[in-house]
Amino acid sequence: MKRKKHTSGDDDAQVDMTPMLDIVFIMLIFFIVTTSFVKEKGLDVNRPENKNQSNNPSKSLSIRIDEMGTIVMNGREVDIRRVVANIQTYLAENPTDSAAIQAHENTEHGTVVEVMNQAKEAGIEKVSVLVKS
Hints:
By secondary structure, the protein is of the alpha/beta class. It has helices at about 10, 20-35, 85-95, 110-120; strands at about 60-65, 70-75, 75-80, 100-105, 125-130.
């Protein structure tokens, strides 16, 4: 049996890619031209700036009022007329924006309200009241 030799005619058979590339570029141009660019409507969001964490207030100020109306701040007894001055002294050393008032359940409400008002006057923004029984 004789084997057939491959002729060089088989190796030269190629597909012409030029018409296919022309069609692809024409379709690309068509889609680019017909696409409509619409600016979407929405709300502008103003996000708060990220402030340094070093400015965070430290622990809150603790004020205790017993059933007799005695006010204790930082382990020492304070007169009701001197609460503002003592809070301002505390704030000079320990910057904070909150205070917790621990009041006994039998404490007069007027005393607690007066201490709350004086804390606000001294510059404390957040005042919470805890009832101690």
